Amino acid sequence: MSTGLRWGILGTGNIAHQFAAGMTTARRGQIVAAGSRQDESAREFSRLFEIRRAHASYEKLITDPQVDAIYNSLPNSMHHEWTIKALRAGKHVLCEKPMACNLHETREMFQVARECKRVLIEAFMYRAHPLTHAVQQAVRGGAIGELRMIRTSFCYHTTRLQDRNIRFRADLAGGGLMDVGCYCISFSRLFAGAEPTSVHVDAHVHESGVDDLVSAAMKFPNDILATFTCGMRVHADNTAQLCGTDGYIEIPIPWKPPMENASYTVAHSIPPRQDGPPTDTRPLRNTLSVDAEIDLYALEGDAFAECVLDGKPPFVSEQDTLGNMAVLDEMRRQIFKTS
Description:
By secondary structure, the chain is an alpha/beta fold. The chain has helices spanning 14-22, 39-48, 58-62, 76-88, 103-116, 130-140, 176-192, 296-310, 318-336, and strands at residues 5-10, 29-35, 53-55, 69-72, 92-96, 120-123, 147-155, 198-205, 211-219, 225-231, 240-244, 247-251, 262-267, 285-290. The chain has two domains: 5-125, Rossmann fold; 130-291, Dihydrodipicolinate Reductase, domain 2 (2-Layer Sandwich), CATH 3.30.360. It is built from nine helices and 14 strands. The model has no long low-confidence stretch (mean pLDDT 94).
């Protein structure tokens, strides 16, 4: 059995650059081909990352016999079409988040993956980082008592608007919720360990027709509440916080943790007492860190390879992806008042 996957990158945009740069440290695969609709774009991308073959069409990339797996980095609106084509061409697919434009498309993609007996996973790379695993273990181990509340944010300010930025294209399934809010939903559902029973969202809709600022809340059946903010034209701390009955965890960089010293803090807020000093003598804050050894995107690529080559369970399951898309559908329904 091969020890590594031969990757083809579908698309040459910003996220493809990040994935290709990170994969240079991967242990279970390498990028052997890149595909773009423009020949020069494919050639320049391949030169930059020392990739052997450049294809001037998506079709040529997915039918390349030297490629085992496809990383689909295309705009959201193209995930469904080209993931299905790649699966039917016999390729495994790591598809950028969000998996598709809606739940219906997502279900069809997984159905085709089953029919073709190929692996299909949604590319939430933070799920493959040991920081995420360490925080999961801390919560499960009772470090903060019973989890009751989750708070996250993921925002950025861009000056590239509308026709120069696919995130401001409604016809390409753009918007802050689909771009970065999906991380907050994924994180909340991961730690809640359930699907929300109720969802409420408020948003500002940009003149281009997409949501550019979102505030949302979710209620889970196990008495856990989650809130998040996301946006494309605003600054925020972009942190995550897990609040329990006996403490809380702060994660300063939850979405793109570094290779070294990825940290989280287990904290306890001791309320002031009027009848003497506090009886709880634990340290108020204990910061821990973990090292990943390889780049975040290499971790993701290697985790995908373990599923394909070793038969390990996916780091983001089909049910997980379907659950996330169901929440996205409901939130977008509320924002755009669709039936």
